[in-house]
């Protein structure tokens, strides 16, 4: 049995003190990996259903002849891992603003790190997702202005509960219209939220994209023995004739 508790790393970052810890959850007999920002929990390996659903729902209509996917926010790696289970995915770029999180994966400190690193389709990019989304050059420094079939984002707690106030512009019409420029025709934007569906935000997405939905993801909290509901927003670009991007 592993130790009951261990702080694996601690870093000071521009948005606060970041820590990675592993603890033994005795009631379930499992190791739990957690990332905290200050006193706030960012993510836990005990609750990953909606992070996986972000990938599965977002990629459900990916072209069968291969798709290029961008994930904003590496975290514990569950969305990236779920993306790579889709055989239609030909490439995955994961943008992460905190270099510590990338280090934890590349060094093998996090359980999913070795699997992600060895998959030749997957590449990590250290950068500010929101700044890159607003730029003309986009997300891939190796291929400026590159477009993707899906952009899946799990960074802020919700469109109204942000890790950094500077992220707010992304969730406005101008920010979403800038993001659209990095999607191919028929492409999908997926967004994770810790909150229940927000009709106003779904309507905003529908006004920017061709269509938008808010999908509830329900899972059981094994510590409290009750159900918990989070949200995956999905918005789709219009389909255009081939070559008309």
Short recap of the structure:
This protein is α/β, with parallel strands linked by helices and 245 residues long. It has one domain (47-236): 3-Layer(aba) Sandwich (Rossmann fold).
Description:
The chain has one domain: Rossmann fold. The protein is 22% helix and 37% strand. It contains seven helices and eleven strands. The strands form two sheets. The chain has a seven-stranded mixed beta sheet. It has a four-stranded antiparallel beta sheet with strand order 1-2-3-4, with no helix packed on it. α1 packs parallel to α2. The radius of gyration is 18 Å and the shape is globular.
Nearest-integer average pLDDT: 93
Q: How much helical structure, as a percent, in the residues?
A: 10-25%
Return the string of H and E elements: EEEEHEHEHHEHEHEHEE
CATH topology: Rossmann fold
Name the CATH superfamily classification.
Vaccinia Virus protein VP39
What percentage of the residues does DSSP assign to strands (E)? 35-45%
* Shape call: globular
Strand count: 11
Q: Which class do the helix and strand fractions yield?
A: alpha/beta
| Overall CATH class | Alpha Beta
Amino-to-carboxy terminus distance: 55 Å
Going by CATH, the architecture would be: 3-Layer(aba) Sandwich
Main pleated-sheet profile: 7 strands, mixed
Report the radius of gyration as a whole number of Å.
18 Å
């Amino acid at each position: 049995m592993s130790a009951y508790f261990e702080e694996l790393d601690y870093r000071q970052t521009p948005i606060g003190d970041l820590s990675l810890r592993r603890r033994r959850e005795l009631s379930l007999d499992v190791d739990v990996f957690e990332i905290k920002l200050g006193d706030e929990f960012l993510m836990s390996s005990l609750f990953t259903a909606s992070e996986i659903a972000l990938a599965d729902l977002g990629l459900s209509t990916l072209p069968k002849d291969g798709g290029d996917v961008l994930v904003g926010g590496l975290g514990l790696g569950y969305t990236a891992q779920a993306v790579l289970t889709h055989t239609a995915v030909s490439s995955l770029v994961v943008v992460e603003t905190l270099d510590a999180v990338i280090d934890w994966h590349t060094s093998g400190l996090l359980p999913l790190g070795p699997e992600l690193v060895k998959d030749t389709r997957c590449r990590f990019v250290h950068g500010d997702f929101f700044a890159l989304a607003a730029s003309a050059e986009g997300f891939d420094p190796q291929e400026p202005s590159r477009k993707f079939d899906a952009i899946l984002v799990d960074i802020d707690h919700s469109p109204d509960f942000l890790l950094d106030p500077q992220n707010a512009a992304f969730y406005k019409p101008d920010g979403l219209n800038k993001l659209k420029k990095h999607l191919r025709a028929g492409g999908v934007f997926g967004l994770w939220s810790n909150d229940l569906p927000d009709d106003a935000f779904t309507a905003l997405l529908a006004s920017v994209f061709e269509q938008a939905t808010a999908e509830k993801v329900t899972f059981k909290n094994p510590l409290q023995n009750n159900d918990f509901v989070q949200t995956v927003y999905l918005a789709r670009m219009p389909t255009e004739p081939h070559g008309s991007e």
